[in-house]
Amino acid sequence: MIQDPLSLFKASLEGNDWGTAIIQINLKEKNYEVLLKNSNFSQLEKEFDFPNFLKNKISHYDFNTEIIYKTDGKVLETSFGHFDYPSGSKDFQFTKFVIRDITIKQKQEEEIAWRLRFELGVASSIQILIQKPSIRESLPQALYQLLYFTEMDSIFFLKNIATDESQKFEIWVNERKSTEYPLLPKKFETLDWKKEGINRWLHKLKNGKIIYLKKEKALPKEQWYFEESKAESILFIPVKFENKFLGIMGFQKYVPNFVIQHENLLIYQTVSRWMGLFVQRDSDLTELNRYKSTLESLILERTLDLSRTKEELERAYKAKTEFLAHVSHELRTPLNSIIGFSKLIQLPEGDVTGKEYLQYIYSGGTRLLKMINEILSLMKIESGQINILYSEFKPKEICRQSLELIQPQANAKGMEIRFFPPIQSKTIRSDSGKIQQILLNLLSNAIKYADHSYVEFHCEWSDFGVNFSVRDFGPGISQEDQKRIFHSFTRLNDDGKIEGTGLGLSISQGLAEKLGGSITLISHLGEGSTFILNIPENIK
Ligand code: ADP
After folding, report:
1. Are strands 92-101 and 19-26 parallel, antiparallel or unpaired?
2. Helix 103-131 vs helix 135-149: crossing angle, to nearest 10
3. Shared domain check, 183 and 70
4. Which residues have C-beta within 8 Å of that of residue 471, sequence separation ≥ 6?
5. Residues of the chain with pLDDT under 70
6. Phi, psi (5° rounding) for residue 97?
7. What was the pLDDT predicted at 391?
8. Tell me, what's the pLDDT at 54?
9. What is the number of the ligand 1 atom nearest to the C-alpha of 492?
10. 311-332 confidence digits (pLDDT tens)
11. Are 375 and 328 contacting, i.e. CB atoms less than 8 angstroms apart?
12. What is the pairing mode between strands 465-472 and 518-523?
């Protein structure tokens, strides 16, 4: 059965949450008539003074959407439809008027906006904590920022500085939104929580629990706190790091009937956890700096000690060197006479024993003199008293002179010396005497310690100056012995058959270093040894 159009239209107004009505407005008379309305409209129009509201709108010719915030917390949105249809007379207008209950929607929007704001506050305060190096500086600013974005009225941070049983705090932050709220009194730094009746708060906080308390829920002995602080509700959160109780973060609200939502509580707790991290980081840094400065002063002290010890050692060493040099010098003079005179003494032809003794005196004396001379050289090198006499000369010449001097020793042992002169005949600037001294020592060693028909003597230019190499085909020197062979008084396999003091190589090395050069040894047991003396072209 076909319904009449009006009942169809009326039915179409039903079916949603909105209160809808078709209203005829008389603009001239400034009144109206509700022609049709759905059941929701009948409900919602009772929620406020609808007749008055509409009349007012008509008389002000204001047909804009309007939101009504009711005292019971409800929020209603009213809006007018278009006025064009149907227009019978100029004075009459028709409109679809809608009332919506947007309480929930409004609440949700507010909630989202508030949460965004809160999270913004948390983020910006954490940003401040991250950026500033010292928490003492950044914390008040960061927490003020946080407070500004939250629903709370005041904030404080009590840093736990207790070292023993007695409870001690330091107020690091004490901020409020308005000066009408009192700040946390200074006495909280040394407050005896037990005596003041609020020990259960501290106990809970130390155990990681929060205190969220309204004035009316507080115990009688705790009431004084609310009276003194004027707070209506308090939220105290422990700040901890790995179970260490670092302090208390406190929020207070000064209006009654205030409830913190569960989600917000979680955010406050998260912020406190962050705080724990920052406070701990700060005290770690302070500790580290303290260690650093103690370490620095310790190092300074030790350095002073060491330089004092070094000076003492140097003084002692100098005294020893001077003493040895002096003694050696004193010994040399009489020894020279002994050697000299032993040569001059003429014994009768037949006195074989006497001549033998005389020979002992002579060879013993020369050996002793050689040793004393070597000690003297070493002392001079070690005490830096060695003088270098510069001249320009050809390396080949110095080799020739050395060969001439060593020839008798080689001949005595029946050894040949094969000399390989340098191809270039350039000159070097160095101390020829010192180089000769080194070469003689190396050549003499090669002759002394090798049992082979010949010794090789090379002289060649390299990128770093001149290389003089003395190569023998003797027993060679093990890797281990190569390390200690340059130490003074070191002799390998000293069975007394070969004469020596163990000083030659250390003197040679000391001299080479003074000339800006070095001695390198290449040797393998059973394969002979090569000692290479490198001397720079020009001493720097
Ligand atoms: P000295 O020859 O007076 O003992 P050196 O300092 O010149 O003192 O040499 C130290 C030791 O190194 C020698 O006693 C010897 O054992 C070893 N040495 C030196 N040159 C050679 C060499 N060419 N071959 C084998 N051993 C050597």
Report:
1. antiparallel
2. 170
3. no
4. 446, 455, 456, 457, 458, 528, 529, 530
5. 1-2, 83-90, 164-166, 539-540
6. -100, 130
7. 94
8. 93
9. 16
10. 988 888 777 777 777 777 778 8
11. yes
12. unpaired
Q: Could you tell me the strand order of the sheet in which 31-37 lies? A: 31-37, 19-26, 92-101, 75-80, 66-69
- Residue 429's pLDDT is what? 95
**Ligand 1, residues at Cβ distance < 6 Å:** 441, 445-446, 449, 472, 474-475, 477, 485, 490-492, 500-506, 529
Q: Are 530 and 523 in contact (CB under 8 A)?
A: yes
Q: Name the closest-CA residue to atom 21, ligand 1.
A: 445
Report the pLDDT value the prediction gives residue 89, as an integer from 0 to 100: 65
Helices (H), ranges, 207-261: 223-229
* Atom 3 (ligand 1) nearest CA: 500
Q: What integer pLDDT is reported at residue 84 of this predicted model?
A: 61
Return the exposure string of 107-129: e unless at least 16 CB atoms fall within 10 Å of the residue's CB, then b.
eeeeeeeeeeebeebbeebbebb
414 and 491, same domain (yes or no): yes
* Residue to substitute in 485, 509, 524, 529 for testing ligand 1 pocket (most ligand atoms within 8 angstroms of CB): 485
* Residues 249, 390 within the same domain: no
Q: Ligand 1, closest atom to CA 491?
A: 14
**What is the predicted pLDDT for the residue at 368?**
84
Residue 122 is part of a domain; what is its CATH number? 3.30.450.40
Q: Are residues 256 and 395 in the same domain?
A: no
Q: Which domain holds residue 449?
A: 386-535
Asked if 48 and 197 sit in the same domain, the reply is: no
State the chain's mean pLDDT as an integer: 89
- CATH number of the domain bearing residue 81: 3.30.450.20
Predicted confidence at residue 111, as pLDDT, reads 81
- Report which ligand 1 atom has the smallest distance to the Cα of 503: 6
CB atoms within 10 A of CB 512: 19
- By 3-state DSSP, what share of the chain in percent is helix, strand and coil, each rounded to 5? 50, 20, 30
CA of 502, closest atom in ligand 1: 8
pLDDT of residue 85: 54
Is 513 domain-assigned? yes
Backbone angles phi, psi at 62, to 5 degrees: -115, 105
Task: Report the C-alpha gap between 397 and 391 in whole angstroms.
Answer: 13
Q: Are 474 and 451 in contact (CB under 8 A)?
A: yes
Q: Ligand 1 test: best mutation among 381, 505, 525, 529, most atoms within 8 Å of CB?
A: 505
Ligand 1 centroid vs 164 CA: distance in angstroms? 71
Overall pTM surpassing 0.90 (yes/no): no
Q: What is the pLDDT of residue 46?
A: 92
- Are 375 and 324 in contact by the 8 Å Cβ rule? The answer is yes
Q: Ligand 1 centre from 501 Cα, in Å?
A: 9
Q: Sheet with 454-462: list strands edge to edge.
A: 416-420, 454-462, 465-472, 529-535, 518-523
